[in-house]
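Reopening this one. Same input as before:
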Amino acid sequence: MRHEKHLESKNCDFLFRLSAAVRQSCQRSRDLQFLCLGLLFAVMGRASDSVWALSAGSAAHWLRGNKRFIAGERYAAGTVYMGLGLATALTGSKHK
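Same output, byte for byte:
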């Protein structure tokens, strides 16, 4: 738990320093600053989505070659669907 708080503070510190650097480089106008920050977040989102896509592709390749997983794949899928149905039934709906 202590380690997680340290990581969170490092992330906050990084984002604070990054925003200060963007602010200094875009001092000309507020519109340019918004454009810089918007592009920054778009690039960060694209990068994180790419990492997830590559990870999922690697995992899929490994799972297709795993005979034990292929044998139990239907049970895994059934368990996921049962869990989703149970979670939906227990939480209910606010729209009645």
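So the earlier flakiness isn't reproducible anymore. For the record, The chain has a mean pLDDT of 80.
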